[in-house]
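Hi V.,

You were right to ask for the full record rather than a summary. Here it is.
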Amino acid sequence: MKIKVNKINSANAEIEAEISKETINSKLEKIAKELTKTASVQGFRKGKVPVAVVKKQYGERLIQDAESEALRDVLNRGLDELEVAMSALIGEPNISKFNKSDDKIEATVKVAMRPQINLENYIEMVEEFDKPVITDKEVDERIEKIADSQAKFVDLKRKRAAKDGDSVTIDFEGSIDGELFEGGAAKEFALVLGSGQFIPGFEDQIIGMKIGEEKVVKVTFPENYGSDKLAGKDAEFKVTLHNIQEKEKVEIDDAFAEKLLAGQDDKSLENLKAQVKAQLENEAIGKLYNDELKPALLETFVANINFDLPQFVVDQEIDVALNKKAGTMSEDEIKELREDAAKLEALRESFREEAERSVKATFIIDALATAENIKVDENEVMQIVYYEAMQMGQDPKEAYDKYKEAGYLPAIQMSMVEDKVLSQILNSKMKEV
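Predicted structure:
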């Protein structure tokens, strides 16, 4: 067996081999002898089957097994010459060439190795930035919103017209071209004006109505409305207003704070303001991180940390992008690509730059996670999936099982690792103003 290795770069290598027919025959003989100990052939006792009979019974399978064993030898010897451990490989080796002739097999095996990434100066690539400042006015506005959300609606103390924020009780009956439509009528319906519960324009026209007043409200259903029968149609609603309620003002004092901070030792308004300020700071930091700093930081790392990429991983990423693109193409366009290899290759190459960037970013995050000692276990992934499912009113376990079946969990886990890694690095560069 002749072996020739070619280390393309630190992440990719090729092993070329010439396997003689004698090598294959020798391995076939050995495998056949081993099989005589366990083979079950009619007319022979177990363990007493002649080699010749085993060869006849399992002919093609023996040849395949002998060739597979020879290829394993090629891989092992090639890795030894490359001085690469089997554990350093990424993915399965790819047999890019396998030519059989009467006296030999010519084979080429491509292997990919985990990239060696130098993170020596990564912290120096991160610029310091000021921690977002939350003003007393912002704190007061948030507490006022909390108070408003807890306020009860009460009947008006003096008669007046309905205004934004009021809760009104109405009867309404909708029609299009004079004909009533299904689901367009209700009695004693409670509606908070400004809530956006009805289609645009409806609630605005209720503002200014008084108790006992009747009015025809004219609106146009949105083009993307859920019902095709109503989408884009002009409609009229006959509305009768029965009652108006306004929100009872909630005093923002220690008594209000005590209700919100039940179970805590310090139930003062001052403590409530401190907690609201901390919450606003976290929200501001989260928005700054997600909208600006994290994407910019990842781009900085991708631009400045250079290493060789395993080619087969890039090719897999290109395949994903190509399949996604194919999903948006017509049958004629797909047929044209199948019949024009050059055009298909050009389309594949158009995804290469973004695929290389994506693969590079993934390896960088993986290396940074090790450097920053960041881990996300399966339980954390489960918790985030459960939480998001409950937020959307879905069954958490069903959602988790569905993601698991579809193979989405590793991607979710990687996204969580990326979020934690970049957040931790940015936290170390945040300055108090």
